[in-house]
Design goal:
The chain is α/β, with parallel strands linked by helices. The chain contains 18 helices and 46 strands. It starts with a helix and ends with a helix.
């Protein structure tokens, strides 16, 4: 019997031991807080937003002249306010890239069109010895925004108007200081697009500000390029704001006779929009090398200037065709370096009298190989040193300046090459000879067989060598076809990487490069190669493949043979936009059904074109055309053709107010590859939708953008789950666009990022402090405003149990100690509660904020105790630590009132699952019942 009772006691001891584990992992305890059960299959989406309408987004670089000297320069009249800081703040807040340039910066030739688009004269004028360098920026195509007394500089430099150059500052003949109380908007113009016609704008009342005399300006040579955008509020004959878009030389100008200090906010929109309008959209950027002492310069302040033989007229002609033009001045820091060449499409080297260094030759060669273009102008064999210098520069190419022979005969033989378009004869002085071994080839040859000009394609770049500098100097550029030759060379050189072949023969613009279609391509920043005759268009079409052909032919009829070449381009997968009046002239051409239509009847004279699909992109992106029809303002004679549309195409506009069969004008092929305009787009030269831009320009932009520019795309990163407050977590998207512009990121609909996008992957760091789900959405925009979005759902959870940092070692004290403090340290990102348990009985619990937990275990009777400290976080994750307390019997009868504190590291802790106090009680009860049952059975058996 005693043996049986002993066995029962062993069983109880065994059960009790396993019912009180040493450490507890409560991460899955039933007391844990339950998070929302969120699905991991959240729906992804792509969203094409409707962009903000207007001109495309771009980075416009503004230089603001910092002149702190209020002393008026001797060449002009008035008092300078010289407050540039107000303008700088305004333009920076508008999103422009603004740089302050000092007098010394400009003296050091830092004001260049490759680096800046617009110069602001904030009621100040340049000092005397930099006036020419500022004019050089304008002559190169840079825009100028001038306030108040800046009119004095414009007059002195011969910018506005030309007639005062070299005479005075134009005061008081063309402008004067007027006592004014404000101005009224007198013209709807891109500068005043945010104002109503006649709207009154107040500035500093009764102060004197520079105003122009309109009658005087209308008697100048630039009258046709001027727009009166604002007049004085009380004296309408005084002009408060003038916009100039010249066609003879230089860039655009806006002069506002308004104060800078004191400032009036009413004019801010006009100032911001003026910068947008002033910024050039160049077909190409050209650099003229002055650093190697060319034989002739460009302007009278240049090195080796000769008034008759300068290259100023060449520069003016190129700028008038939308190129920009800078000079490379000598510099101690280096001349033809990769840094100086960066940002240019074309370099002109003209008869250098200073040799190139090996580093310069290497830099130029690498630049050409990467896509730059080089025009070299040589001479006859008299210039022996110059021959050596040029041939050293050209060493990597096949082109060579012949050092022994001069050309004889008349240069009237032109290669079948795009450079030769519209060339019949060239006037020369005393040209040398160009050697053109393969892969170089001749462009212009005399009737005696001497080659005067040759060309070569090198890597991704192009090179032209001409053996006579006088062909393009001021004395001869206006002779025979010399100017056309220069324009053709520039067109070919900068278009080596062009994606678009443009044909245009619109006759009413200043030149083909300033036609609505060419300006639209430049506005969209699309590289194009321009042809203006059908023969050379066809030649270019067959010399290489093109992504897109734009054919704008309102003037000269095209033969059916050339239509067949266009059909072959379309069949090969090329894109096409066509505006033409000739379907009825070649009704059997297979091009028409390929584009989705055939001829119905001639358009009646001066008929409106009605928009049938007003929500379509070609009427909305990037310009929102607000009118219901397109009305012609020019008469080309044959207005075009009304079309019958086939099943492979869709009519977007027609001759009737509502869509009808056989009444179509604008036809889009269903695959989006071709777009045909039966009416001549160029006839829509008005502003019917009151956007301040010509309707033809807007329609060309929208059509080109729709057909040519592929909208951005975006991938779909998976939804993800992260730990709360985790570091190093992120989402990475890989959107793609050929014309990236900006992107924004929202978190649960709130914008957290909005910045420029260069086309690279976009990574967003995740820093989540709370449990739950959040949605991150990336939206990327291209330069025409098209967008695409993707969202990622992030589930934030907490699955990490608290960590035991420090626990006491097993404890011991003598019975009678009234106070004995014990410390536990745990860590967790989201601490919540703690429980202190002694032998399965909770004796203390409370809120835990992550700090050290201190309990007092004094006053225990002699014996051995299991002390358990358990903590949980707000997600219900648990951990515990158990130590043993031994209280020994007292050796005295007195009372020990001392207090002791014990801390240490518990080496006996483990990660076995713990129980809550209720769980422990339940297990003990069950175990006791089991033991009692076993005991009864054993006793009965013993009987």
């Amino acid at each position: 019997m005693k043996e049986k009772i002993f066995c029962i006691l062993l069983i109880i001891l065994f059960v009790g031991t396993f019912m009180i584990p040493n450490t507890m992992d409560m991460s899955n305890n039933t007391m844990s807080k339950v998070s929302d059960n969120l699905s991991d299959t959240q729906v992804k989406f792509q969203n094409r937003e409707t962009p903000a309408m207007g001109q495309i987004q771009r980075t416009i670089r503004v230089a603001v002249y910092n002149e702190t000297n209020a002393t008026t320069p001797s060449y002009t009249t008035g008092i300078m306010n010289t407050n540039y800081s107000i303008i700088t703040a305004l333009l920076t807040s508008a999103g422009y890239d603004v740089t302050i340039l000092t007098f010394q910066d400009i003296l050091d030739h830092k004001l260049k069109t490759a680096d800046f688009d617009v110069l602001v004269l904030a009621d100040n004028v340049p000092r005397e010895n930099i006036t020419d360098l500022v004019k050089e920026f304008w002559l190169g195509g840079g825009g100028i925004l001038s306030f108040d007394s800046g009119a004095g500089y414009l007059g002195y430099a011969g910018i506005l108007p030309r007639e005062s150059a070299g005479v005075d500052d134009g005061y008081p003949t063309y402008w004067d200081y007027v006592v004014t109380g404000g101005g009224n908007i007198s013209e709807r113009h891109p500068v005043t697009k945010d104002y109503a016609l006649g709207e009154s704008l107040v500035d500093a009342v009764y102060n004197d500000y520079a105003h122009y005399t309109w009658t005087a300006l209308m008697n100048t040579s630039i009258a046709s390029s001027l727009t009166k955008i604002a007049i004085d509020r009380d004296k309408a004959h005084w002009v408060k704001g003038v916009a100039m878009d010249p066609t003879d030389m230089g860039g655009k100008v806006v002069q506002l006779g308004i104060p800078v200090d004191p400032w009036k906010a009413a004019w801010e929109n006009a100032i911001i929009d003026a910068v947008e309008w002033l910024a050039p959209r160049p077909k190409g950027r050209i650099l003229f090398d002055l650093s190697h002492l060319p034989y002739y310069g460009v302007d009278e302040w240049d090195i080796s200037y000769a008034s008759t033989n300068s290259f100023s007229e060449l520069r003016n002609a190129l700028v008038n065709r939308t190129y920009t033009f800078d000079k490379l001045w000598p510099s101690a820091s280096g001349n033809l370096t990769s840094t100086n060449l960066q940002g240019y499409d074309m370099l002109i080297i003209e008869l250098p009298r200073l040799n190139f260094t090996a580093a310069e030759v290497s830099a130029v060669t690498d630049w050409v190989n990467s896509g730059g273009s080089l025009l070299v102008l040589g001479e006859n064999t008299f210039f022996t040193d110059e021959i050596t210098y040029i041939n050293f520069l050209l060493d990597s190419y096949a082109l060579e300046w012949n050092s022994t022979d001069n050309a004889a005969g008349t240069p009237n033989v032109f290669a079948e090459h795009p450079i030769s378009e519209n060339l019949v004869a060239i006037t020369t002085a005393s040209p040398g000879v160009v050697n053109v071994p393969s892969p170089a080839y001749p462009i212009m040859t005399t009737d005696s067989g001497d080659i005067i000009a040759g060309a070569q394609e090198y890597g991704n770049g192009r090179v032209v060598l001409v053996s006579d500098i006088n062909i393009f100097d001021g004395a001869r550029i206006g002779s025979t076809n010399n100017l056309q030759f220069a324009v053709n060379i520039a067109n070919w050189l900068v278009s080596g990487g062009a994606d678009v072949l443009l044909f245009v023969d619109e006759p009413f613009s200043p030149n083909y490069y300033r036609t609505p279609v060419a300006l639209a391509l430049s506005e969209l920043d699309i590289d194009y190669y321009l042809m203006a005759t059908h023969k050379f268009f066809n030649l270019s079409l067959n010399m290489r493949s093109w992504d897109m052909v734009v054919f704008d032919s309102p003037w000269v009829s095209i033969s059916s043979a050339y239509l067949e070449e266009i059909a072959q381009h379309v069949e090969a997968g090329g894109k096409l936009i066509m505006s033409n009046y000739q379907v009825d002239l070649s009704p059997t051409s297979r091009l028409w059904p390929l584009l989705g239509f055939n001829f119905s009847y001639d358009v009646p004279n001066f008929s409106a074109v009605h928009i049938w699909e007003p929500s379509h992109s070609i009427f909305n992106i990037p310009n929102a055309y607000g009118a219901s029809n397109l009305t012609p303002f020019l008469d080309y004679g044959d207005e075009g053709d009304v079309l019958n549309v086939f099943a492979n195409a869709t009519a977007l506009a027609g001759i009737t107010s509502t869509a009808r069969d056989n009444e179509s004008i604008i036809v889009l092929r269903n695959d989006g590859q071709t777009l045909y305009n039966g009416y001549l787009i160029d006839q829509f030269s008005g502003d019917l939708d009151d956007s301040t831009y010509d309707d033809n320009f807007e329609l060309w932009m929208n059509q080109i953008a729709f057909i040519f520019i592929t909208p951005p795309t975006i991938d779909n990163p998976s939804d993800k789950t992260i730990e709360v407050k985790a570091s190093g977590e992120s989402i990475t998207w890989t959107p793609v666009s050929k014309w990236p512009s900006t992107y924004k990121v929202t978190r649960d609909g709130t914008e957290i990022v909005n910045t420029a996008w260069d086309g690279s992957p976009v990574t967003v760091a995740l820093n989540e402090d709370d449990i739950g789900t959040v949605t991150y959405t990336l939206t990327v925009y291209d330069m025409i405003g098209a967008s695409v979005s993707d969202s990622v759902v992030v589930t934030v959870e907490d699955t990490t149990a608290p960590t035991l940092v420090e626990a006491p070692a097993n404890l011991e004290y003598e019975e009678g100690l009234s106070s004995f403090e014990v410390n536990w340290t745990f860590s967790d990102l989201l601490p919540d509660s703690y429980w202190f348990i002694v032998d399965n009985v909770t004796v203390e619990q409370g809120t835990w904020n992550g700090s050290v937990i201190v309990v007092d275990v004094g006053g225990f009777d002699a014996g051995t105790y299991n002390l358990t400290m358990a903590v949980n976080d707000t997600s219900g994750n648990w951990v515990s630590s158990v130590v043993t307390l031994t209280v020994t019997a007292s050796s005295t009868t007195g009372t020990d009132t001392d207090t002791d504190t014990s801390t240490g590291t518990d080496t006996d802790t483990s990660t076995q699952p713990p129980s809550l106090p209720e769980w422990l009680i339940l297990v003990i009860a069950v175990g006791t019942v089991i033991v009692l049952v076993v005991l009864v059975i054993m006793i009965r058996k013993s009987k």
